[in-house]
Amino acid sequence: MRPAQAGLEAVLANCRPQPALPAVLVFMLTLLLAMSAARNTGDPNWMAWLVPLGVLASAGLAVGAGFCSLFPQTAWLLLAVWGLPALTGGGPPAVTVYVVYLGMAAVVIMFAVQLWRIATRRFVPTIAGDP
Question: How many Å apart are CA 91 and CA 37, to the nearest integer?
C-alpha cells in the first residue's frame, strides 16, 4: 500500500464508492418500506414507525463510512433529497421529516470533518501498489 499521489489519483482515492454500499442499501430498503407504508390507508401501522429507524440507521452507516471516503455522505445526501417526498408520504410524516433533516445535518457535518481531515493530512488514503 502506498499513499495516493496528488491530483486525480488523490481525488479518486478520497471518493471510493465501496464504503457507501451498506448505507445506500439500507436507505433504499427504507425507501421501499416507506412506499409500502404509504399505500396503507387509515392509521399508520407499525411498519410506518420503522421508516425513521431505517433513515437513522442508514445515516449512521453513511457517517461511519465517511471516515474513509467522501462518497458515502454525497450518495446519502443525494438519495435523501431524492427520496424525501416518498419518505414523508406515509406513516408519521412529522417524525420522519425531522429524522431526515437530522440525518442530513449529521452527514453534512461528517462531510466537513472528513474534508478537514484530508486538508490537515490526518487522513491519507492509500492505494494498492504494483506487486
Answer: 6
**DSSP notation for 15-57:** T-SGGGHHHHHHHHHHHHHHHHHHHS-SS--HHHHHHHHHHHH
Residue type, 27: F
Cell numbers representing residue 115 in the block: 474534508
- To the nearest 10 degrees (0 to 180), the angle between helices 93-119 and 46-65 is 0
**Rg (alpha carbons) of the chain, rounded to whole number:** 17
Q: What are phi and psi of 7, to 5 degrees?
A: 95, -145
Read off the pTM.
0.84
pLDDT digits (tens, 9 = 90+) for 9-41: 778 888 888 888 999 999 999 888 877 766 665
Integer Cα distance of 52 and 93 in angstroms? 9
| Residue that has been written with the C-alpha cell 429507524 in this structure | 53
Check if the beta carbon of residue 127 is closer than 8 Å to that of residue 9: yes
